[in-house]
Amino acid sequence: MCGIVGMIRPGKQDPTRELEDALKRLAHRGPDDRGTWFDTTIQAGRPFTVGLGHVRLSILDLSPKGRQPMVSKDGAVIVHNGEIYNYLELREGLKEEGYTFHTDTDTEVILAAYHRWGPPCVDHFIGMWAFAIWDGATLFVSRDRLGKKPLYFYHDTTTRFLAFASEIKAFKGIDRVAWLPDEKTVFRYLAFGEMEQHGATFYQGIREYPAGRSLSYAPGDTHVRPRRYWTLSDEQYDVDEKEAVVNTAELLHDSLRLRLRSDAPLGLSLSGWLDSTLLLALMNEYGLESPPVFSSGYAETGYNETRYTEIATRHLKCAPKATTCDATQFQNDFEHLVYHLDQPSRLPGPYSQWQVARLASNDVKVLIDGQGADELAGGYVYYLPLSIRESWWMDTVRDLADLMLTAWANRHVLSQYPRQQIWERISGRAGIFQNRALRKAWASQFEQEAPAWTEFMHLNPMLRHALLEGSLPPLLRYGDRVSMAFGIENRCPFLDHRLVAYVSALPASLKIRGGQTKWIFRMVAKGKIPDAIRTRRMKMGFPTPVGSWLRNSLLQSCRRWFYDYQGIAWFNRWVNTEAALYLLEEHASRRHDHQALLWRLLSVGAWLKTAELQ
């Protein structure tokens, strides 16, 4: 795992200073090495300078031979962030065709694959990646199928200036890139809690490069037009239940097998839920009898997974390590967390991941994670209504008690959202001025905006949307930024594109059955993990008791934060601090629950401060 940056600009200006500035801001992503490269090319009679930079987290081939930017014998130059898990198989095939290799890295395999197949090389890759290859005439850019690895770009159509980077903060020191907030995105976040919409970011002109797409860009091109090379099909399999369970198990097994390849220490993030516990059981089956596993919790009732992580670690072979956090530690970490996230988060869940990553960084550089199973097989309680809608009425009556038990077990989920927001979601009507802390003079310019709620009548289309556009993209951003803040590579076996394509095409009845969410993975886990975890109804996600802390131990700190952020011109333009403080008092006195809204207001302030958007 690494960080990359690059640019193509008219003229012959040396980009080294800007590249080095960007790499300094990405240093946490690659503490082991760094490098830059640039050259000048003539396109249509005009000179253009191409510059590439890379910071390295050494995972495969830890020697200096793996340094990037890496140059092939034919002069192609690559910067790569990610892992091609099937690189050994690809390398053997390429060797048979006459290719030779001088490193044990997957990066060199990408270069050879591009030479052999050109842009379609990405169809051969199993993994997660964001890379750019300059071949002397064009820049080839690609991002993995589900967007596991981040990539952002800035393109000026007038000057033909192009820049890209793994994280948005890297753009701050690059000339010609505007460093200004995108106010429409900020409004939609504050008013509707929306994230990652159609490539927009919280910064003017800086776009998220879309997942599952590749681009061939020649210096001087007017537009950036990524080409889709992969997406999920609408196809649905008609398959026997037993066959579906066997096939799913085999795909998950192979996905994990590939993701256990590492020349650096490897461990597991353990949540006490089905997904990560199943991965631990499979790691044991692959001969890892004492893998280090890391978990976090809180003392507050309803936010502690300790009971279940202890069950998992007693029944399966591992070396467990756990951490508990309190409000004081969160207070010290809050602005650092927002800085590394690059953009505000919808809820404070990433802080639980932050704790695990910090704990794990003392022992490992690779962390296996259960992310993606919920979006793939309907793990959240709000998927239940759609499964009912698709069931025969007699099945619904039969399963009603089971459904009610699951809904009751997950009632804690509703506590994270204000009643007004829940009602707006049910009714389909949003009042943008319900956020009383927004300055009306500013918000009124967005009165035509409406939340991008998407209604689905069937479960499978909703799950495909969650994977490609809905809940998964921001969750992947959180996971990447939090793990990389501590120099850790995050690997997600449930997001292998082969497994994703197969399970997505299974009938909805194999994903949610009665009150059982993720039925297909529960069947795969049968006999492998303790039933107390396998049959567990409650889905906690990444709960963080910030709402409770804001009523007591964080109350004074929250007031100070608001007064501090009031001094930032942008924050004062958007937010009425006195109104925000009144919402805080309502929350603290339990007259209303404003935890989600207060989190967004505080996150915007911390984002402006840490990003130096004055």
Question: In words, what does this structure look like?
Answer:
This protein has 614 residues and is α+β, with helices and mostly antiparallel strands. The protein has 3 domains: 2-228, 4-Layer Sandwich (Glutamine Phosphoribosylpyrophosphate, subunit 1, domain 1); 241-382 and 408-436 and 450-534, HUPs (Rossmann fold, 3-Layer(aba) Sandwich); 548-610, no CATH class. The chain has a 6-stranded antiparallel sheet with strand order 2-3-1-9-8-10, covered by helices on one side. It has a 6-stranded antiparallel sheet with strand order 4-5-6-7-11-12. Strand 13, helix 6 (274-285) and strand 14 form a beta-alpha-beta unit. Helix 8 (327-341) crosses helix 24 (595-610), helix 9 runs parallel beside helix 16 and helix 21 (555-566) packs across helix 24 (595-610). The longest helix has 19 residues, at 241-259. Residues 422-428 have low confidence and may be disordered.
In terms of DSSP E residues, the strand content is 15-25%
Low-confidence stretches: 422-428
Name the CATH homologous superfamily of the largest domain: HUPs
Strand order of the largest sheet: 2-3-1-9-8-10
What is the CATH first-level class name of the largest domain? Alpha Beta
Residues in helix, %:
25-40%
Number of domains: 3
Distance between the termini: 32 Å
- Figure out the total of helices: 24
CATH topology of the largest domain: Rossmann fold
Largest sheet: 6 strands, antiparallel
